[in-house]
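Q: Protein A?
A:
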Amino acid sequence: MGSSIGSPEFADSFMVEKLSEYGLAVRYERAEGNKLYYVADDGTEVGVLDGVSGFGSLMFGHNNPEIVEHAKSVLDQQTPVHAQMSGYSYALNLAAELNKIVRRELGTEDKFYAQFGNTGAEAVEIAIKHAELDRGIRIAKLKGGIEANIAQARTAVAEGATISEAAAAIAGGTDVDRLVAEVTRRNAEVEARPAQFLALEGGFHGKLVASVQLTYNQGLRVPFKALAAQTRFIPRDQPDMIAKVVEQDRAALLDVVVQDGVVDVVERDFPVFTAFLVEPIMGEAGIFPLTAELAVALREACDTYGVPLIADEVQSGMGRSGTFLAGTQVGLKPDYIVLAKALGGGIAKLGVVLINEHLYHLPFEFMHSSTFAKDGFSTRIALKVLEMLEAEDGKAYKMAAERGAKAKAVLEAIKADYPEIVKEVRGQGLMLGIELHDQAGSASAKIREANETSVLPLRILGHLLRKHNFRIARTASGPWTMRFEPSIYLTDEEIATVDAAYRDVCEILRSEDVSRFV
């Protein structure tokens, strides 16, 4: 068994087949900084500018020397990777450091409890699992109050209290036992309703059993619809729809109360929705940052209807936007914060959910666990990453903002020169997207055909890679948007590569000569 890359016979065979059609299947042998390297047929090593960057995982680039050296030191020190159920681990240090940063960003003194997982999707599942625990506890408390009130009503009737006309109409008479039986029956129907989630149209929150139901892309979600709770999706540009959707699905339990010697029935709101999940920068939708208006509307709606707000910062967090949390820039105030990707420094797998103390339930620490969730290696790598982000008064954040602004200005200039080709440039910091116009109206039959079969974006990606040594990926739900998420060490020379590569594509599409694509 050697270290060379093997055949796709037993894994990734479909992926390799499809990528090969567009020149995108490559055996990368080495990685450093913003570059991936492969060996050409003539034996020379070719460097490729990596704009995919682990889908935002590489804040400090491939194999960052400082992180790699730290990782070697962690292993050389024989750090316990596995010490489960000991109570003390480096996860405690990591949780404390995350609290310092998040509390500063959110401007709060609230404490955030940390629950760890291995990936972003797993961290999302942890968040919604805890939110459902909280919903269940709230329901149990609501039912307990109703049961206590029913007991009081029975006592009151025995002592001469009467039943109101409205209550009698529900019971079909003035008998308290019939009233209780009907209230119990109706409440059982409401309690049997499955939990639901709220999310934004275009959102992406993972591909696991529960998290995929929060992902808007129907191709990813619908085949597994029967396996988990469903989601109501809200248009991101219509915050007023939140109230309308919630009201449509509103439910209530009946409560029996006694006032001035009269037994009556009142409604108590039933918590239908487990949580509302949002990405501060919607990645797979096409790199759409939330607006401040929507951030305010989300918080107000969640407060009004008693729904916890979960910020999925898996891709946008860890400084990529220019602040530790992308939501900071629009004033988003979440109850849960989900982090992953860049938290592992590009070499470790780690995700975390930060849960506000006002919602957290301590027994959850035993209700959810994972063998590798708090391993000593990953948590110590994450501590190093936080140290690097915070060093020199947050220099890394400033670099992300400055490098991102320069790259975005170049993309905006391309849009200005090719307005019929480039539709929009979006994003914050080093989470950028450039969206091209759909080419359905092209005079070229070949371009129209490639457009209709959805392969034109893939041909563009293949051309960028093979001619310009520039690796980029389109977003899952926005096929005409190409994401650009390099490290903070993006150079002017690399920005110039991006400029030349995109201008070449724009020239080809303007000339409507698809034969020029490599």
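Q: Protein B?
A:
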Amino acid sequence: MTIKTIEDVLFPGIGVRVGKVEESSGELVVEAVSIGRPGRCPDCRSSARRVHSSYHRQLVERPLGPRQVVVRLKVRRFFCDRKSCPRRTFAEQVAGFTERHQRISVGLKQRLYAVAVELGGRPGARLCRKVQMQAGRTLLLGLLQAPPVPARAPRVLGVDDFALRRRTRYATVLVDVEASRVVDVLPDRTAEVLADWLTQHPGAEVICRDRASACSKAIRQAAPHALEVADRWHLLQNLSNALEKTCHQHRSCLRKHAEQEARPFPPKIEPLQDLPRTAMVERTRHRYEDIHRLLEEGQSVNGIARHLNLDPRTVDKYKKTPLDDLLASAANRRPNTGLSPFKPYLHLRLGQLGSQAVGARLFRELCERGFRGHVRTVERYLARFSIGEAETVHAPMPSPSTIAAWVTRLRETLTDEEENQLLRVRLACPDITRACDLTWAFLDITRNLRGTLLQEWIHQVVQDAPKPMRGFANGLLQDLDPVTAGLTLPWSSGIVEGHVNRIKTLKRAMYGRASFKLLRTRILTHP
């Protein structure tokens, strides 16, 4: 395309003629006049034939380089000659350039709208200042308009709730699962609100939901012919919670098994070195001397506390407790040095080496196994046995949540150490073993979409499973058809959860403090 005139540069394809361009106070002021065909009446849509008058409009246009552009546009006002129309005159609008009641051009408005959609209010206003576009946060947010909601619901509808204010107010997001697009946002998560929306927007054939009873009630009430699909992720979460409760109820079995596998350290070995004088021991000794010196001078407990900047209860403890007991307590206080996971190996090597054990040698062996502490930490720990402080180290006992995570993960992703610990857990308690076997069977049904085997699995659980697992199975029976559909059909709420995470990101950008109307508009307009 060959550029011939200045209009082709400033207003390509727009019916205006540029009269004059001048610079004023760092701005480019463009004098222009409309030369398009007469417009139509906004009420009756009849074509205009007579000109009433003309006037100038001032509009802000997109910046040109580092300069802002202001257009003084001369437009016409026309008569409406149709007698039945209540409007007598109307101003013309230049297609692609002006809109009614707007002081910015259509092109600038589109650009500001894109900024508002991506960044929002204050961040968008900061960007506009840097690129020479005059727009405040109020103008940017005012450009956001929620798109119209389709009259019919999508064929596959996803439903989930999110918190407007945690534990206080909630809203519901509706997603077209096939198109991965938010359809609407409702101001509450009650069954009545969702049922009213489904009644006004029929057409949903498949509805993916979590296991909330309010959602199920609304579907049965307003869309009884739709197929409900329970989300697989929520099913696995409920199963993991049941397995974790089972492990928590049988922690005594795990503890007993760990005590049986414990390796007692030899009662006493040859002294490796003298017990080090730690900073805590020295501080305790000096504090004891200072407190008793002031007591001999006749000062009170409160007076000593003010003088030494201590708590009066601390001063009273040093007053009544013998020095040897205070020093012993200070010597036994150890910071968290990260040595605990390595103590079983350290005790094993001490049992093998006996009097030949050297702190530096054992320190190097621990470093090869991931220890990140200091050699003095190992030496101080070894020195405790020179005074007869024997210790029994138990094999590390995994927490119930850790056990549940191992069981629900893919077996090939577990390390050898995790496999061995999981085997010890299963050997410790038959109930935990049964719960693990049932969990693996349910995971196989879920991952391979074998929902036809669900009732058989529930029957096995009801017969001899631990109580938390039976509670999970009874919950499945109350929601059997949607759960079976969720374990058979390819539909799930994964796309809906993704949009919920996107909504949380918008809330962190201060939209969580905005009104629900603005938050809804932002959700529906954000790509």
